[in-house]
Amino acid sequence: MNAGILGVGKYVPERVLTNADLEKMMDTSDEWIRTRTGIQERRIAREDEYVHDMAYEAAKAAIENAGLTPEDIDLFIVATVTQESNFPSVGNIIQDRLGAKNAAAMDLGAACAGFTYGTVTAAQFIQTGAYKNIVVIGADKLSKITDWEDRSTAVLFGDGAGAIVMGPVSDGRGLLAFDLGSDGSGGKHLNLNEKRKLYMNGREVFRFAVRQMGDASLRVLEKSGIAKDDLDLLIPHQANIRIMEASRERLELPEEKLMKTVHKYGNTSASSIVLALVDAVEEGRINDDDNLLLVGFGAGLTWGALVIKWGK
Ligand code: ACO
């Protein structure tokens, strides 16, 4: 029994922070941000708007989109690194708020690769028949840990949440293959510093990302038995357009097969890939039996790549 995607949902905060706004806050320019990263604007959560608020909205929308009710859900897996507290988990909070009284809940920390880890975890429960309907959420509020004094990172990030409902699917659809990995030796390049703010060595992370996104994409394709030419859409972690383009080139895909949301959301950590997936669905860019490649990397350092054949 394959595990596939039954419904999708998202939430992004109302407030838009543009490159022009950042020009007023620090020594930077729209031109620098655009050409180095592809980002034009990002969403920033209100001070009193938390990861669990965004995760709740995204999960609610995904459950509705799947044609289910909260009581149908067996498990919530929330990929995040910016929850308000370690316990209760974001999963616990939204399980209660949704009235999903039959569900278990947990959070999972794999930074920007978190959504790929969550999806693979959910698939194991479904493939064994242990659970039927699982909500996987990617939700982060990186603005909370952004060092607004550091222009080399402050311009990169945004807030948001995306969710999918996973369940059993037929006709060879669903998750076909995955490739997850960790290189903890690179942890020093991206972490929380003593001020509890995000520190990043951009160049090192860039190098890691270009190499690992390409390598993991090729490995997962081989495991799935899908040829490069048969891929319909590449949905990479939306950190930097140059890293995304490098992945597209490694896979020899035409421009139109690369899903991009980095210009409007920036890097939203665990929500990045799932927000891009939801937007692709909303824009009508995904049809039944399309082959999708989702690939991410992040702090840890971690990476994850999935091949999914779309449809219930
Ligand atoms: N505005 C203007 N100038 C800037 C800014 C800014 N916001 N930030 C840095 N600069 C300057 C630097 O000071 C440097 O100036 P110098 O040459 O006088 O010293 C110059 O721009 C070039 O800096 P680099 O760091 O070499 O720029 P680079 O082309 O490497 O781009 C970037 C930096 C965008 C951060 C890139 O390295 C990158 O994208 N790295 C990967 C980041 C990433 O993907 N992180 C996600 C990790 S997962 C997670 O989300 C937690």
Condensed summary:
Residues 221-310 form the Beta-ketoacyl-[acyl-carrier-protein] synthase III C-terminal domain. The active site is at 112, 237, 267. With 312 residues, the chain is α/β, with parallel strands linked by helices.
User: What is the structural class?
Assistant: alpha/beta
The domain tally reads 2
Tell me the strand percentage band.
25-35%
Average pLDDT taken over every residue: 97
Helix count equals 10
Low-confidence stretches: none
Amount of helix: 25-40%
Strand order of the largest sheet: 1-7-6-4-5
Classified by CATH, the class of the largest domain is Alpha Beta
Outline the biggest β-sheet: 5 strands, mixed
Molecules bound to protein: acetyl coenzyme *A
Elements, N to C (H/E):
EEHHEHEHEHEHEEEEHEHHHEE
CATH architecture classification name of the largest domain: 3-Layer(aba) Sandwich
C-alpha Rg, in Å? 18 Å
Distance from first to last alpha carbon: 12 Å
The name CATH uses for the topology of the largest domain is Peroxisomal Thiolase, Chain A, domain 1
Shape: globular
The CATH superfamily of the largest domain is known as: Thiolase/Chalcone synthase
Tell how many strands the DSSP assignment holds. Answer: 13
Enzyme class: transferase
EC number: 2.3.1.180
Domain Beta-ketoacyl-[acyl-carrier-protein] synthase III N-terminal: 106-184
Organism: Listeria booriae
